[in-house]
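User: I'm new to structure prediction. If I give you an amino acid sequence, what do you actually give back? Let's try with this one:
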Amino acid sequence: MFHPLFGATALVAALLAHPASAAPLTLQAALDRATERSEAARAARAGAMSASEAAQAATQLPDPTLRVGIENLPVTGSDRFSTTRDSMTMKRIGLSQEWLSRDKRDARKTAADAVVGKEAVQARIAVADARLQTVLAYLDAFYVGQALQLTTLMEHHAHEEYEAARARLASANAGGEEVLKLAAARGMSEDEAAELRQQQATARVALERWIGMPVEDLDPVAALPTPSESEYVAGDPMVVSLQREIDVARGAAAVAAANRRPNWTWEVSYGQRTGYSDMVTVGVSIPLPVAPAARQDRETGSKLALASKAEADLAEATRSATADYLALVSDVQRLQERIGRYRSSVLVPAQQRTAAATAAYRSNQTSLTVLFEARHAEVDVQRKLLALQRDLAKRQAQLVYRPIPGGAL
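Assistant: Good question. You get back a string of structure tokens that encode the predicted 3D arrangement of the chain. For your 409 residues, that looks like this:
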């Protein structure tokens, strides 16, 4: 016996499988949009530009100093405040220039370039983080949409079976208890669908936060390849960032060590007197490090200690990244095994149960309640399978999108 509800069910399934809508959003398009509109990445790029501009000035000498003054100006007696009556009064103008050796300027340039490299890495880290968060939000939105399709189909089943039970009750082919059970089942299906619609709205808002546009349909995500351990660890954001921190700390230590040799200041001035010969003065100022072990060496030691700290932090970050990689790979393998086992040992029997219940109902050997329970159990199994597939896809996404492409290069 063929019941009209089976034709309606097939129609609903076809509509769900082929929705009439615009082309779905692809993961690559979502990643491109997230990269373009990431304000964190823009801020990091501005930081890199700032460091680059500062590095250009690192090799320049300090600006010269113009010195203008009057020497030996009388302030008492008849010649007070006169610049021409006393032979010792002299109007003077001069220039002074602090001199940095080539070694010091090279050390400053190296330190500045290390800061540029650090800021450039921060920009790449910001882009990688935006892409990772986008793909995770994309997967959440995609899989909750798939679960909603299953639950919506179940909701249609519940409505159809409830109406069929009422029609059978009117013809005295069904009891009131069956109608009440199916009414409760219909309400439960409606609530499950409402809950998933709420989850879908939340997931879409999370995705929109990264791509800046509302979405309806999403393309499935292809299986992602698993990187090697060395690739993952070399591209870990914390590992890459700390590698640059070491460069910055070593550069600062080199600058501090160079500062142990003081900068000389050259000065030349021209003095004008009235009625007497003009004067030219040439001199050099040399700071005297009276206690380099107590000051300059301490500053160098402080910078070297920061370099040692960064090296220790890098070693710890490398261990942490390695552990994260092994944990994610283990999760991927475990989830793949669970999915294969779940399909064969849980999903297939649930589908067989539904097929048997459908055949029994068509031959009037079972009730609509039994058919609904079989269908509902199959939908629950399929939703659990979707949850496992979502977890697997998110673990694979973390393996692929968390590392910075190219590592520290």
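You can read the tokens as a compact description of the fold. Here is one thing that stands out. Residues 239 and 316 are 9 Å apart (CA to CA).
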